[in-house]
Write a structure and sequence with these properties.
This protein is mainly alpha-helical and about 500 residues long. It has two domains: about 170 residues, no CATH class; about 300 residues, Alpha Horseshoe (Serine Threonine Protein Phosphatase 5, Tetratricopeptide repeat), CATH 1.25.40.10. It is built from 24 helices and no strands. The longest helix has 24 residues. The protein starts with 9 loop residues before the first helix and ends in a 7-residue tail after the last helix.
Length: about 500
Amino acid sequence: MTDRSKPGSKSDRDAFRHQLVDAGCTTAEIANEMRARYRMRPREAWRHAHGWTLQTAADRITLASAHSETVGADASLTAKWEKWPGPGQRRPSVSVLLAMASAYGCAPSDLLDLLDRQALPAADLRALSYPTPSPSAPELQPVHTAPPVSSGPDLVRLAADESATWAQWAEGTNVGDIAIEQMLAEIRALAGDYLTSDPMPLFVRTRTLRDRTFGLLEGHQYPRQSRELYAAAGYLCALLAWMSSDLGQLRDADTQGRTAWLCAELAGLDDLRAWVLSTRSKVSFWDGRVRDAVAYARRGATFRSSGTVGVLLACQEADAWSVIGAHDEAVGALGRAEDARAAVAGVDEVGGIFSCQPSRQDNYAAAVHIRGGRPTEALRAAGSALALLSVQPVRAYGTEAQIHISQASAHLSAGELDGAREALAPVLAMRPDHRMAPVAQRLSELSTVMGHAAGSSSAAVGLRAAIAEWCADSAPRHLALSPGSGSA
């Protein structure tokens, strides 16, 4: 079915308006017909009666306010003014309603219905009670009118009513402290569950909580609560960025990272800033933008933060340096990770993926030593990481897989193909839903090295075939082939 045949579509509305114009209807009559036919709010009906887009209406409203209190309208605000007092919308002020009436060539009262009048403050209703424009005024010409200026006791009383109305709005909030506390608890659960659970259901849960947070931020709350909501939104977007990257969707991960950074700035929290920059360093690293990964990690380290984010940032910097062969810089960064570990003075507020346990630190060290041609040090770091992981209450399957890959790489460097195959056995046995993009990429790199180091022996060929099969049955591959992904 085409858009032309849909009731309420733009083409349907335009055709109906032209029909009414041809029948000699006035703009007011057209607005009334639009309301009755399409169940529109009054302000939306008047806009469609003129045949204007939201942006055109916004421009006319701004222009109409030029002779009084200037209104800065845009398409988004105009849409929210039209839909108010619906949930999540914006109440139009007296100045906005006067500018709208002037732009549309009507009286302010024409833009209000009973629902609006019940929701508007009494002071606003009084301010809007003034003579309507003359019926002979040209419909498309702005009619500049203003409420009469009160004097004496009436003026003083009006000013007091206005202040009281504002105070009622200012002390109201759409979220309580208990709700924010519960939201943080849910974020902690998501960040912790991500280490051990299937990624897609967690992605859905995280997205749902993020949407709830965004919805609350569109309402009104105390400044302190707004900062806490921005912090929650920042952690949730950072978590979505981490998940998107692990699922191989690096462009989407970068978008989430930018939004997370905006939330961190609005929240004004150095801990969150550091964790967001750690996330962006991670995304850049797996996207091949290694210099950006170094820059994000170094910038994150400039913020004064508690917990273990400083350890992870130094590890990420070392990881990035080792990829481009800057081994002295990589070793220096590993040393700074040790210093950051010794300087940890607090706990990680969220934890889970937003925490750097010693096993995770050793995992990074093992990978850096492998790239630096130090297989003995790599084996030592990998062994330490696995021992630490075995006594942790939560074993992160992604970290554990990468530790085993570092072990296999070290054995392969020493010409021990059997040792490499044994180290990879737990990785190759992973469930497809747990096979994330970073692990798949490291396995593919190991397979390439194996082709050069082990030649065409049957054992090497078999192991490389098992790796290829593993990567073909991974979570990112399933996501790429899922309906709606654009892939065949």
